[in-house]
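Tip: read the tokens left to right.
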């Protein structure tokens, strides 16, 4: 049975271009339980226009559970995401929990100090990493 589950997981990973698909429930659970540093992948809707500041593209998103998160996308390590308010994204990165200002960073393929795993943002069929 484990072999079948592992094979199904590999098929799903391959279908997503080698990237994990969103797990909205796990991301919400990590937020609720304050698991700062957790690697999360979730669906999101952009709620405000992105702002470029200090080598980071910053914007707010809402996940399917209604959580609002700030995304800090490092544009010195990755291409900017041409997202606008209302756009739907899939985000993979590292959760940070900061009372009243939870967010996601490490959304780039080139890891920097403090980013143990590479991340990405998908807008439509394009992945930005």
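Filled-in amino acids:
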């Amino acid at each position: 049975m484990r072999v079948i589950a592992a094979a199904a997981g590999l098929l799903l990973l391959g279908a997503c271009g080698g990237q994990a698909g969103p797990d909205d429930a796990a991301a919400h659970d990590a937020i609720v339980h304050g698991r700062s540093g957790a690697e999360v992948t979730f669906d999101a809707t952009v709620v405000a226009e992105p702002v470029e500041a200090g080598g980071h593209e910053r914007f707010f998103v809402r996940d399917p559970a209604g959580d609002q998160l700030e995304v800090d996308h490092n544009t010195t390590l990755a291409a900017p995401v041409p997202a606008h308010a209302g756009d739907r994204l899939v985000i993979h990165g590292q959760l940070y929990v900061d009372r009243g200002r939870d967010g996601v960073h490490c959304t780039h393929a080139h890891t920097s100090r403090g980013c143990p795993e590479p991340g990405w943002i998908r807008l439509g069929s394009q992945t930005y990493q």
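Residues 1-17 have pLDDT under 50 and may be disordered. Residues 15 and 24 are 18 Å apart (CA to CA).
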